[in-house]
Task: structure prediction
Amino acid sequence: MNAISTIVPNSEVALQVQGLTKSYGKVRALRGIDLEVKRGEIFGFLGPNGAGKTTTIRCLLDMIRPDGGSALLLGLDPQSNPVAVQARTGYLPGEMQFFDNLTAERQLHFFSDMRDGRAEWSFVRELAGRLDLDLKQPIKNLSKGNKQKVAVIQAFMHRPELLLLDEPTSGLDPLMQQEVLGLLREANAAGATIFFSSHIMSEVENVAGRVAIIRSGEIVEMAETGSLIRRTLNRITVRFKQPVKVAEFASLPGVEVISQSGGNSITLQVAGDMEMLVQKLGRLPVLDLETDRPSLEEVFLTYYKN
Amino acid sequence: MKRLWTTFHYTYAGLRGQILAWGLGLAIYGLLIVPMYDSLFAKQDTFQKMLASYPPEFLAFFGAETTSMLTPGGFLGMYAFSMMPVIIGIFAVMAGSSLIIGDEERGRLDLILAHPVGRTSFFFGRTLGILGATMSIMVLGWAGFSILLGGSSLGFNLAQMAVPFLPLLVQILLYVTLALMLSLLLPSRNLAAMIAGAVMVASYFISSMAFMDERVQAVSNLMPYHYFQTVLSFDELNLTWLAALLGISAVMTVFAWLRFLRRDIRLTGEGSWRMAFLFRRRKRV
Result:
């Protein structure tokens, strides 16, 4: 038996997770996940394969039962009220399998029937048109990307309040990726809260207001996307009037030498406060200085060094 | 309730191919067997001599006796119904074992249960679906056996022809629920089907050969086939046996349901041998 704590529901929060743990035998998939996703926000969930993203999402939907901790979705406990939670959420799994002998349309009808026919079929056709999906095609004849489109439609078609998406653009070409991101924004603009995991940093960077980074079953960082990038790393390229010694910079705290061109140009990566570096540069013959904001991918990778 | 019936509808529709295949197969067999009795009856002397030359063990294996085989009930018992639990049992074992776990191993159950159907509604919708499919197979089979009854010297009416399908239905449901329960307890559907199939076949062989050895008789008393009747009169039906077998099926169904409520749903593929406790609770503080 495991003791669990209960969360106090908050009406402004769509998703509350506290101390979530899950083990598969000796493998500890989740080691105490704490998350809070506000209503109406787009929240990105980043992590490499095996970090615990899918396990977290499946715990939230009562597919698997956590060993400890608790969660509330839209104020409801997914273990006590799974049907109520599932009625108000849309789910897109990372790995999709369908009934191969059905057409895409028939498959979507099945999912709609499982929701008491809540999907407006005009909206389904609109989504299919935007994603360039032929609904009359049998599922078994569809490519991976087209199956992903069916998965996207089934998640969005009933206009849920909360969307849990596991790699929503997986297998899609760049045009369709943008279309799906557009759907995310539109759903969000209409009031939906979106929680999605992705490996594609650029789309998380462009769409998500806040992100959490998960590593080995633990949340290692959670912040607004912009501040995370600004706070964590800066890349500076400096050109000097004369050669300088690299060792002078490498010894500064939080400074990493990325590259050096000749003896006059050096590229540095700075984590955190830049004051000491600026003071150091002030004593050197600087010709030119250029700062560059790192991508979210670079931010993400810093959590996976060593 | 609505989603239970939605699940039932889709399950039954998904089994329509098997309903037609097994049901029509049974019906066609009936169309062939019923007229055959008249041919046999016309040559009964020759047939009697032939049967007398067979070892009793051989006849017992097919559920026959020399004296009763030429009676209408004995004839149908031997040629039609004695092996039906094993033959139709193939459907029971395969369909029962894949009823829930088939979708899980193919990676479909995840998304289905992400819809607001509830595990209980889903489970019983599926179970009612296969119950309906099994009954439909029996109805089709009965129809095939009944079509030519009027021109046959078997002398049964439609209602009498339905009687042997009742114990057959009960036997099939037993193997459906056994395979279903095993699929939710064991790591894979294949393993569940193998074990349920082995029980089915062993039950038939042991029960057929039980008269030869008292020790085998003792084991036979534990086998489902021992309680299978091929009677054609409702008065001869052992309702206690039927009720007991149905009760065992119900218990296995409930056991399977409880297990389904508590287990984690796999993403895809077969599971591990590590089995969670059936009744797993968490203490709230």
Q: What stands out?
A: The first strand of chain A starts at residue 3 and ends at 4.
